[in-house]
Design a protein that fits this description.
By secondary structure, the protein is an all-alpha fold. The chain is 86% helix and 0% strand. It has one domain.
């Protein structure tokens, strides 16, 4: 019975870790083609005729990225490194994928990182002139990532307890 519970829990943990890896890597990969993605959104905004704070902000961001890339293309290297960092962080989860109990520290570190999103978003966001409502959107990554990781952490602790019992 305990063996079945362990196998079931391992399967759930593996699925959650894979979900997190996919999410963090996709988040990074999408930073590479930022200008072309914004160009598509720009066209959608123009064709929709919608004019509100959100569309104005996206238009400003698109204009800034387009001008920066055209005049100073080396600045895009920063978002390339951002994308790379997300990919590398995703790769770090191979450890918990292989042995979640032994590598639970990666989950703990990631939960701390999710909490750290908040001061970064609010401090750097304010300094850089990011609208407050956009800072809240950025914080949602910390919230959703933290919730998923917290759930995953509890599952790993349950697995550890079951393994100790068997």
């Amino acid at each position: 019975m305990i063996t079945n519970q362990i196998q079931n829990l391992r399967s759930q943990i593996k699925s959650l870790i894979i979900l997190f890896i996919i999410g963090i890597m996709l988040s990074g990969i999408t930073a590479f083609p930022i200008e072309s993605q914004l160009a598509v959104v720009h066209q959608l905004i123009l064709s929709s005729g919608i004019d509100n704070l959100f569309t104005q902000w996206i238009e400003l961001v698109y204009s800034g990225v387009r001008e920066t890339n055209s005049r100073f293309p080396f600045m895009g290297y920063g978002t390339d490194w951002l994308a790379f960092a997300h990919i590398v962080i995703g790769l770090a989860f191979i450890g918990p994928l292989r042995d979640p109990v032994k590598n639970i520290w990666i989950i703990e570190w990631s939960m701390i990182s999710c909490i750290a999103v908040f001061p970064l978003a609010f401090i750097a966001g304010a300094i850089r002139g990011i609208p407050f409502w956009w800072q809240l959107i950025d914080c949602s990554f910390g919230i959703f990532g933290g919730l998923l990781l917290g759930y995953l952490y509890r599952k790993i602790k349950s697995l550890e307890k079951l393994q100790t019992q068997s």
